[in-house]
Amino acid sequence: MKFLLVFDFDHTIIDENSDTWIVKCAPEKKLPNGLRNSYRPGHWTEYMGRVFVYLGDNGVEEEEMKRTMTTIPFTAGMVDLLGFIGENKELFDCIIVSDSNTVFIDWILKAADLHNVFDEVFTNPAAFSSTGYLTVQNFHAHHCAKCPKNLCKRKVLKEFLDKQSERGVSYTQIVYIGDGGNDLCPVMFLKKDDIAMPRQGYTLEKKISRLAQDFSPVECSVLVWSSATEIMSYLKVLIKE
After folding, report:
1. Is residue 8 among the annotated active site residues?
2. Using CA atoms, how far apart are residues 110 and 114, in angstroms rounded to an integer?
3. Residue-wise pLDDT tens digits, 168-227
4. Fewer CB within 10 Å: C terminus or N terminus of the chain?
5. Is residue 19 marked as binding?
6. Set 10, 93, 183, 194: catalytic member
7. 183 catalytic, yes or no?
8. CB 199, CB 49: distance < 8 Å
9. 179 marked as part of a ligand binding site
């Protein structure tokens, strides 16, 4: 029996938002107001597509983007935590479910030599076009009214668990580590033996505590963290039990 660790990426594994960090590559490190104001709620991926066109139009090339992205700091204690998980892969399956994109996550994990810790990464597919522009697509289509158009993390988690179950793999416990509003949908899917680990002071923690105040708490246990060292302490207890 194994444990499944599910990580968000932005503000969880890394201490920033990869999509807003890329703006450091733009002229004067900012976007024109018209572009910045073109975002519509639930349509972030389309907005990022326009940002990448703007960067391409301004001659920002792949190498410069990569250099910039690999300077993003990891969250406190995260590199140690991922190292610990990597040393105990016989006990942990580990996936990322993120609203970032394949190119950014790949660059960042490979630069830190952490890509082998993760069994699968579920995020918006991105690639450089023949003209050298970065392009991004929605991860999938779904019918969840609570989630942004491009990604329902509950659907991803459920499909992953179904696929694992067909292979004969089931998990003693799912540990979900995240920070954002779009992490609430998969957390609501967790069962009472599972655990949600929202980052302290971020949207997910606030949404979970609001549900508890409304007497409709999530079914799983909740353990708040501010440093990944606290997550590691929990996992060490888990594997001793």
Report:
1. yes
2. 6
3. 999 999 999 999 999 999 999 999 999 999 999 999 999 999 998 877 788 999 999 999
4. C
5. yes
6. 10
7. no
8. no
9. yes
